[in-house]
């Protein structure tokens, strides 16, 4: 199952281009580099730069990208936002909820789902990010179809460029990812069968009968159920059932010797 | 509605403590600071440090926290992971899927949902993050209830501490946030009523009849429907309908003058 899902996800990743990230008037080369790194963490590799203040290429960007060289080296330069988005069909502006504009506003998750759906139909997508200090200019927001906003602590809401790109990339990646929300990693061993488990229960309960732990007969059914629930909940593997059987055997085989030693 | 939701979300934030972030053997003070900043972006403020390599307090951490001083100043030091988690009831280990351990594995989203549910029942939660280079030691993973894993590009999966904390905090925040996925920001003006819109349609279609744009009568019904759909889709506000009515009036009031000027 996991193998099949991975293959399907990979096929989709190849077929559906990830959104472009368009940095408008970015200031520090270092921030461009960390943004490139954050993008590649989630498979985004189309980086577009509009008027980077400190010039391009940038050694600081390459250094800060920590290995995301493909993204930095492939970055394209544009003289204006209009040029940078000309080939795109769906553009989000990453910014706080606008006060003075009438504009659709989507969370990063909703925007990612929309871009995934549009990209599957062949529409090229992109996200605009403004300069570090001031954020996006209203004229750039007006070029976008909608605002992408990241729900955040209102008392401390400032992100740097890379963190914004990371969260946008993360939401994009999640819309194409089929990892199970919760699963049990079992390595090379498999889940125990119920026969394995019932064999262990029989051994354990017999040992508990022998040592007198279950001697109060009116309480015995409840206690047995409670003990069984502990081990059911642990979702044991075959290997672990063998380990537990060994523990019970070990604890019951040499009780006089062990007691003697302790005294 | 938005006001009500915000109030409910804020009441919950006050009532349900966010997870602790436990950094085990963190190396650079700077990384502790950026982690504190990422935590506060999503309202997490319980930072715990186990054996920070470069000592504590750290001027570099304070500087890198960019204003998240409450988190840095409130960080607590512990000599061991066991001490750092003693008061917690639910502990996740943030790491890649383990190869040699039998362990429940949850995505960041599933882990956040679980921690939110447990925290609502009064269980204190926390997430372990290992040192920058090596990640969590297996002995620390064995102290956790489950592994928290962030779905990521398998070809470029390395995060720094702050980015991992950011994504974990983001997922936690989302489980308590009720921001609508998509909405229309309209500022001080409200959505147009259908009467407003129908009034504009009547004005526009009459003007288009007058100028001959709709002269082919068998095509007229389809063209009217197509034009109406353009403006329906725009989900116009009252103000915008007034603007559009003004545009149509403007375009029809002085056509001879305008044409004369252009020549």
Short description:
2 copies of one chain form a homodimer. By secondary structure, chain A is an alpha/beta fold.
Mean pLDDT of chain A: 90
Biggest beta-sheet profile of chain A: 7 strands, parallel
β-sheet strand percentage of chain A = 5-15%
Our Rg estimate of chain A from Cα atoms comes to: 29 Å
Helix count of chain A, per DSSP? 12
**Share in helix of chain A:** 40-55%
**What is the chains' assembly state?**
homodimer
Briefly note the structural class of the backbone of chain A: alpha/beta
Element-level helix/strand string of chain A: HEHEHHEHEEHEHEHEHHHH
| Major interchain interface with per-chain residue totals | A-B, 57 and 57 residues
Give the tally of β-strands of chain A: 8
Q: Give the terminus-to-terminus CA distance of chain A.
A: 55 Å
Shape of chain A: elongated
Poorly predicted spans of chain A: 1-5
Widest sheet, order of strands of chain A: 3-2-1-6-4-7-5
Structure description:
The structure is a homodimer of 263-residue chains. In chain A, helix 6 crosses helix 8 and helix 9 (194-211) packs parallel to helix 11. By secondary structure, chain A is an alpha/beta fold. In chain A, strands 3-2-1-6-4-7-5 form a seven-stranded parallel sheet. Helix content of chain A is 50%, strand content 13%. In chain A, helix 2 links the parallel strand 1 and strand 2 (47-50). At the A-B interface, helix 2, strand 5, helix 6, strand 7 and helix 8 of A face helix 2, strand 5, helix 6, strand 7 and helix 8 of B. Strand 8 (182-185) of chain A pairs antiparallel with strand 5 (103-107) of chain B, so a sheet runs across the interface.
């Amino acid at each position: 199952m996991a193998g099949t899902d991975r293959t399907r996800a990979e096929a989709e990743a190849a077929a559906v281009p990830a959104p472009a990230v368009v940095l408008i008037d970015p200031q520090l080369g270092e921030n461009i580099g960390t943004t490139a790194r954050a993008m590649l963490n989630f498979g985004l590799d189309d980086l577009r730069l509009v008027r980077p203040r400190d010039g391009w290429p940038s050694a600081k960007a390459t250094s800060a990208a920590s290995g995301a060289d493909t993204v930095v080296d492939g970055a394209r330069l544009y003289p204006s936002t209009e040029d940078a988005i000309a080939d795109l069909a769906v553009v989000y502006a990453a910014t706080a909820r606008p006060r003075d504009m009438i504009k659709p506003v989507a969370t990063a998750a909703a925007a990612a789902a929309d871009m995934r759906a549009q990209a599957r139909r062949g529409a090229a997508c992109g996200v605009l990010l403004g300069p570090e200090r001031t954020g996006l200019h209203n004229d750039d927001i007006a070029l976008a179809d909608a605002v992408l906003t990241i729900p955040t602590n209102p008392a401390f809401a400032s992100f740097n460029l890379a963190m914004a790109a990371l969260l946008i990339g993360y939401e994009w990646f999640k819309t194409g990812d089929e990892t199970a929300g919760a699963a049990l990693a079992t390595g090379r061993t498999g889940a125990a069968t119920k026969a394995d488990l019932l064999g262990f229960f029989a051994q354990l309960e017999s040992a508990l009968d022998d040592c007198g732990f279950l001697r109060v007969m009116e309480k015995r059914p409840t206690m047995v159920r409670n003990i069984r629930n502990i081990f059911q909940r642990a979702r044991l593997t075959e290997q672990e059932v063998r380990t537990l059987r060994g523990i019970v055997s070990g604890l019951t085989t040499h009780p006089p010797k062990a007691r003697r030693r302790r005294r």
